[in-house]
Design brief:
513 residues; Dipeptide-binding Protein, domain 1; 3 domains; seven-stranded mixed sheet; 21 strands; 20% strand
Length: 513
Amino acid sequence: MTKLSRRRFCITGLALAGAAPFAAALPAAAQTLKGGTLRVGVLYELANYDPQQLSTVNFHVIKNLYDSLIEYTPEGKPEPSLATNWTIAPDKTSVTLTLREGVSFHSGNPFKADSVLATLQKGADPKRGKNVFSTMAIVKDWSAPDERTVTINFKAPVPDRQILDLLQFLIPIDPKGIDTVETVPAGTGAYTLVSRAVGQGLTLKANPKYWREKQPLAQDLVFTVFSEDAAASAALESGAVDIVYNGSSRSAVRLKDAGFQVFSGPGQLVQVFRINSTRGPFRNKSFRQAFNYLMDRASILRVGYAGMGKVVALPWAPASPAFDESYTRTYAYDLDKAKKLIAASGLSADAMKGWKILVDGSNEASVTISQVVQGSLAKVGIPVELDMRQGAEYVTALLGGDFDATFGAVGNVQKFPTRVTTNSIYRTAGNPILKDPHPHPDYVAAIARVDGAAGGEAEVKAAYDNLNRVLVDEAFGIPTNSYDVGLIVASEKIGGVTLDIDNLFVARTIGFK
C-alpha cells in the first residue's frame, strides 16, 4: 500500500440546469494557509456523537472527531488511515488489517486492536449498530492475533469493493467510551469537544496529539446552528461565519454568483419519498405502487434543488453499479397509470384519506417538494395534509419512524449497492420504520442475493437487476432525484478544502489564506 496521501482535493462543480460552474480552490501547494478560529454555519442540530449513526445531521462532526480505518479519495481510490495496510484473502472470505502505531483516543487511551474489535461488536449488534448494522451482515467473526493486527472473516466470498466499503465505513471508537458515545465523543480525530449548546452549536479545539503531521490547521472549530438556510447565508455574507456547510443548492448558486467559493463533492444523496408500509392505506401494495407514477420528478428537481442533480426512479446515484437509466423512463410521472393502480388497490375514498406527509419545516426544499406531491395527490382525488415540524422534532420523528410518509435523503448510493441498507428506510433488520420482522421479505432476499454475488459479471448483473425490480414492486421508498449534499460555501479567504467521498465535512486541512 502507498502511504496516506495528504493531498487536499478541490473540484469544480458541474454547471447544471443553467447554474454557473462552482469555483475551485487554488491547489494546496500554491497556498500558504494559516490557522485560527474557523466558524462554520450548519442547518441542522446534531443528533449525537455516535459515528455509527451516519445521518445527515451528524455529517459536520463525524470526520472531525473520528478517523476511519481507511479513506477514499474523491475518485474512490482506497488509502490508508487508521489501518496502514490491508490484505484481502485470495478466496475473498477474509481481510487482514495492520493498524497504525502511535495513535491515541481523545481520552489518552491507545488505539489498538481491541478498539477495532469493540467497534465491530457494536456494529454487529442490532440494537447498537445503527447504520453500520446492515453492512455487518456479511461478517462472520473477527480476531486479533496481536495488538496491531485484526482479521475479519466473512460468511461467504465478498466482492473487493464491498470489503473496502466496510473498512471505510468502520470508524474505531474508544472501548472505554463505547457505552456513552452518543453523549460523549470517543474518537481519535483531529478535534476534541469543548462545549455544546443544544440548538445553538458546538465548539471543538485542535487535538494536540493528532497523528497526521501538521494537522489540523485551525486551532478552534466553532459550529453555529441556523434554523433557516437564508439566515446561514446572511451570516456568511456579513462575515459572521467563514463557511456554510450543507446549505441549499439554490443558495449555493446565488452565493457563487456573489463571489463566494462553492465546493461540490462526489457523495450525492438521493431524495426518497419514504413510505411507512405498516400504516393505513400504505399496507396496500397497489396503492404504494401508484406513487412510482405520482412523483413529478422534474418539478421536484427544479423547485427543490435549482435543477442541480438528476431525476431517478431508483435509490442510486449515477455512479452506482446498480444504476439503471431505463427505470427513470418507465416510471415517469403519469397520473393515468397512477389512477389505474389506485383503482386496483380496491381501497375506498375514505380509506385513502387520513394520513399526512411529515415535512421538515426548517428545510425549504423539503417544504416545496412536499407541496409538489400534495398537488399531484389532489389531482387524483386524494387530499393530504402536510405535518410541519421543525429541527430536532422532525429529526426525532424521521429516525424513529413516527410518520406515514416523508421525504428523506439516503446516502452511500455511489458505493456497493447493498450499502443502501445503512439508511433507516432501507435497513433489512432493525428497521425503525418498518420494524421486525421485515414486512418485505422479497427485498431482504434481494439484498442478500447481491451480497452473495461474488462470481462472474452475469451473476452480479442479474442480482442488481433483481434488486431493482423488487424495489419498484415493493414501493416502500420512491426515489425522485439525486442532489448535492454537504455543499461547502466559503469566503474567499478560505483555502485547503478537502472533499470527502461521502461529502462529510473535513476541517483539518482548512485554513486561511
